[in-house]
Amino acid sequence: MDKLQAEARLMLENQKASLVLIKDGEKPHVDFRPGLLPLWQAFREEKWDGGILADKVIGRGAAFLAVGMGLCSVYSHIMSEGAEEIFLAHNLEYQCEKKVARIKDRSGKGLCPMEALLDGVTEFEDAINRLNSFFMEKTSG
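Predicted structure:
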């Protein structure tokens, strides 16, 4: 697994991707779009049980999705304390370069909409239902 972790991290940095998902024996999934939508789509469309995620930013939303995807390891440049709590509660291995109290929005002035949406949510099903409602409305299906 260490080899896959290193590969995912290297791809994230070298390709300047927003996220990389790797599962042993499968073609890596690389996405360059910002935000949580690409990870939510991967959560809904593909099977990643036992895979690895490398992502630029991981907050509560990404953490719940990672748990739901059955990933075994997560790496991020920036991770919220809320994401760390979720990983600890679900025994999911993680690493990050920098830990922050909460993820800010792109302007840096307010709270990330996903952090606000999931503020105080501790139950997986509740989190996934909120994320599904948000993205289904945003993408119209």
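Summary: The mean pLDDT is 93.
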